[in-house]
């Protein structure tokens, strides 16, 4: 009889080796769908914002035809950065030599270029980046051959709409910045299991969800979190169970590798964005959203509660793990894989670590 050997976690080097992080910037982070921004940031023609993916500077901009384009943030003349931050401009002008581009990326003009024999501006255009609008949330992919998001994350778009029917009207109310001294994958793994919730997150586990009902299942390259909300007398904020058929549920859609939609009980949408800085530093951004960005004291208070409890608790956890991964004494232990799944199983970590391996080995 063959002895069953349990699957072990990844070796520490996957989280501590700068060479592996550099590899991920060329593969995992460059060939997946990454959050760029929200359509509400681009309401008028000429509105733009900048962002970065895998070490590349990029920007999104709305055209006069109301289309949204995404480009590498680099002039085609001598490679100067074109835009900074966010704002509005009728054209894109390079601050180095004033080469000018239309909002659709085509070159418009450049000083003295007409005097150059053979110069053909019609052949010059900013380099575009693949972009998708996912229920108002914009995602970019540096891979021009990338499959659509609906193939990566089957069912997620429709499920989100059923949990948050007004999702297309949402705007950002508040961003909470969370610097963490750990590899981005350590933070993502911590987010992607609730094995530790009852022990480490007492407010979340007793005042928001029922941990015993928590489950996480792969859905394409999406990890689907589902659980019930706590009893009404124990909830830490008010909810209306009649507002929506899913009002009494917590649900999350983690979109590999660095973004998650979370719907808290009461149909409160917040998001989690991870921006890797290097092999041992990441900034996580917690986004809270309301219809048209309207003020909500309930959500403001929930954001404070979340930052002071679950988020703060997680910072200590992931930074301790990062330190431990560097230890000579660390030997990767078996993952806890219960055939029945559930909150005490690490099926989600198995899936994540498989995707991590694929990212650097299969490209």
Question: Your description of this structure?
Answer:
With 363 residues, this protein is of the alpha+beta class. The chain is built from 9 helices and 17 strands. The strands form 4 sheets. It has a 7-stranded antiparallel sheet, sandwiched between helices. It has a 4-stranded antiparallel sheet with strand order 4-3-2-5, with no helix packed on it. A 3-stranded antiparallel sheet has the order 1-10-9, with no helix packed on it. The mean pLDDT is 94.
Give a short summary of the structure.
The chain is an alpha+beta fold and 363 residues long.
Reconstruct the topology from this structure:
Blueprint: H1 13-16, H2 18-26, E1 34-38, E2 47-53, E3 56-62, E4 68-72, E5 86-88, E6 92-93, E7 100-101, E8 107-109, E9 130-134, E10 137-141, H3 149-152, H4 156-163, E11 170-180, H5 184-191, H6 197-200, H7 202-207, E12 215-219, E13 222-228, E14 249-255, E15 259-264, E16 268-278, E17 281-291, H8 297-325, H9 347-361
Helix pairs in contact: 5-8
């Amino acid at each position: 009889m063959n002895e069953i050997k349990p699957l072990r976690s990844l070796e520490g080097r996957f989280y501590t080796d700068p060479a592996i992080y550099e590899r991920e910037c060329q593969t995992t982070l460059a060939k997946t769908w990454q959050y760029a921004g929200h359509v509400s940031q681009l309401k008028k023609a000429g509105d733009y914002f900048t962002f970065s993916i895998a070490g590349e500077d990029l920007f999104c901009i709305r055209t006069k035809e109301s289309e949204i384009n995404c480009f590498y943030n680099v002039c085609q003349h001598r490679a100067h950065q074109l835009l900074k931050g966010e704002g509005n401009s009728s054209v894109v002008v390079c601050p180095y030599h004033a080469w000018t581009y239309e909002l659709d990326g085509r070159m418009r003009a450049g000083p003295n270029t007409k005097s150059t024999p053979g110069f053909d501006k019609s052949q010059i255009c900013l380099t575009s980046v693949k972009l998708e609008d996912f229920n108002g949330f914009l995602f970019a992919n540096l891979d021009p051959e990338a499959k659509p998001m609906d193939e990566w994350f089957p069912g997620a778009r429709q499920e989100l709409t059923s949990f948050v029917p007004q999702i297309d009207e949402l705007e950002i109310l508040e961003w909470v910045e969370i610097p963490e001294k750990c590899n981005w994958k350590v933070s993502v793994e911590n987010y992607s299991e609730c094995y530790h919730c009852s022990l480490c997150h007492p407010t979340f586990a007793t005042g928001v969800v029922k941990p015993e009902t928590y489950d996480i299942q792969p859905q394409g390259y999406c990890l689907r979190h589902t659980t019930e909300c706590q009893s009404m007398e124990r909830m830490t904020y008010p909810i209306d169970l009649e507002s929506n058929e899913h009002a009494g549920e917590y649900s999350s859609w983690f979109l590999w590798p660095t973004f998650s939609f979370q719907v808290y009980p009461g149909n409160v949408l917040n998001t989690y964005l991870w921006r890797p800085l290097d092999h041992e530093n990441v900034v996580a951004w917690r986004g809270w959203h309301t219809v048209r960005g309207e003020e909500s004291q309930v959500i403001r208070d929930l954001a404070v509660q979340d930052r002071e409890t679950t988020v703060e608790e997680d910072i200590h956890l992931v930074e301790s793990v990062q330190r431990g991964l560097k230890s000579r004494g660390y030997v990767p232990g078996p993952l806890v894989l219960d055939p029945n799944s559930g909150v005490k199983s690490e099926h989600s970590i198995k899936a994540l670590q498989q995707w991590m391996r694929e990212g650097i080995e299969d490209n």
